[in-house]
Amino acid sequence: xxxxxxxxxxxxxxxxxxxxxxxxxxxxxxxxxxxxxxxxxxxxxxxxxxxxxxxxxxxxxxxxxxxxxxxxxxxxxxxxxxxxxxxxxxxxxxxxxxxxxxx
Length: 103
Hints:
Blueprint: H1 8-38, E1 41-43, H2 44-51, H3 55-63, E2 70-72, E3 75-79, H4 80-92
Antiparallel strand pairs: 1-3, 2-3
């Protein structure tokens, strides 16, 4: 077993820094947890698999404003309820892949 000796002041400094880091993490968790607990969020791949569409079709839906999304760290996320509503519209109202109604 290896024993490392450090000064008490250095140990207290490390403890203080770790405590501050823990408080920051808890603060961020408390701030954003309610947002994500209200709704399940899906990424591009999950939406494409769920709706059986290509990434290009998903991009068309976004461009035409048919599917709202949020961007976080250069990645798009979609609310499950929005995806379900679009899925229902696509298959019940015959919206084609270009975002237009087939009627």
